[in-house]
Amino acid sequence: MTNPQSLIPNHQSPTYDWIVVGAGIAGAALAYELVKKGYAVLLLEQHATPQNATRYSYGGVAFWSGTTPLTKQLCTEGIARHQILPEELDFDTEFRELDLLLTIPVDINPKEVAASYTRFAISPTLLNVKEACELEPLLNPNAIAGALTVKHGHIHPDKTTQGYITAFLRAGGEMKIEQVTNLYPQSLCLEGRNALRPYSPNLLKFTEVQTTTKTYYSANTVVCAGGLSRQLFQSSNVSIKLYFTHAEMLETPPVDSIQLRTLVMPANLKRFQLETESSKNDGVWTQPDCEVVPPILDTGAIQFKDGSFRFGQMSRAITNPFAHIDSAESEATMREGLKKILPILGDLPGTWHRCLVSFSHDALPLVGLVSEHERLYVFSGFSNPFAIVPPLAQRFANWVSGGKDEIILKLCPQRL
């Protein structure tokens, strides 16, 4: 592995084959797959202690949830990838399969809900109230008309990401904790020897990435900054149809006295409707501090192997990524919802957190070259990240190395 010195005047900055912006699950997996291909890769992350959507997620791997040939294939590849990742990365990702319980409110017909799930690769099984409570004894039987259940993958999102990063560094990658402020997709043409192994022309092209402390140069840059991706592109005068919600959750310390057997979520997730409605008009996202649609609550909970809980989730479509949110009011709303479904969890001591979750209008990620900007890529907007990021990271690395990939082409930003 070489780390070529820059051909930039004064030789002040190293030059990389790839700069990956963002070290959540998307950036970490992609950086790892790129360095495996022999590229010189720099991974940039603004927080030493993660504050991203990966950090505050449930860690679910919905490998059963594909609804089209494309998503079914990616989900199948994703679960196969997770089964071998711990050995490949030499890191315990805490991968397991558990029962997902999708609760149905008392005022909804369970059979109608079950019928809406027949389009998935694996259709969940409909349970009556008694069966649902036998599977998950912590449920409030008076709050549900029934539930759906299906086997669901689960990982520890932080540990999986750290596993990717550790393997990336071990393979020769480089990581820095710096905040990216600007991207300059205009290529810099420099005469000189070829410092980048995958490229042969004597006329070299570089992209420029500015952080709060330094400027880096790379043959290619890929933005994997999740909910901050849109803001970063906008600050660099690059237009992209990528959006985000403010997702809020509560996290508890380890609890030994209570055991949640399943991952509990509502059968009718409001978040997907919020994403569809809030992304109909791209122009509204240029307005500062605009709440595009009202907030929603999807009450759910998961207990990790160490006994800690994460539950929530409030989602808000506000155009300002740094918008003020009344944490006390949000926490009270989430706890009220939790007490209805899982009463014993409602008063557990916990800490309120929020993060940004990126998405696109058609629920598929944006993967590939950004329109009209040679050597600037995006890898963001994942609605089912833990299922499809690992296989897509592999596919992306193969594609930029010269391989053909119809799935990558179908996910290009220009489709929207």
What's the quick description here?
By secondary structure, the chain is of the alpha/beta class. The protein contains 10 helices and 17 strands. The radius of gyration is 22 Å and the shape is globular.
Question: Would you mind describing this structure in some detail?
Answer:
This is FAD-dependent oxidoreductase. Pfam families: DAO. One of its GO terms (molecular function) is oxidoreductase activity. By secondary structure, the chain is α/β, with parallel strands linked by helices. It has two domains: 16-59 and 157-187 and 199-241 and 363-415, 3-Layer(bba) Sandwich (FAD/NAD(P)-binding domain), CATH 3.50.50; 96-154 and 243-360, 2-Layer Sandwich (D-Amino Acid Oxidase, Chain A, domain 2), CATH 3.30.9.10. Helix content is 27%, strand content 30%. The protein contains ten helices and 17 strands. The radius of gyration is 22 Å and the shape is globular. The chain starts with 14 loop residues before the first strand and ends in a 6-residue tail after the last helix. The model is unreliable at 1-12 and 187-203 (pLDDT under 50).
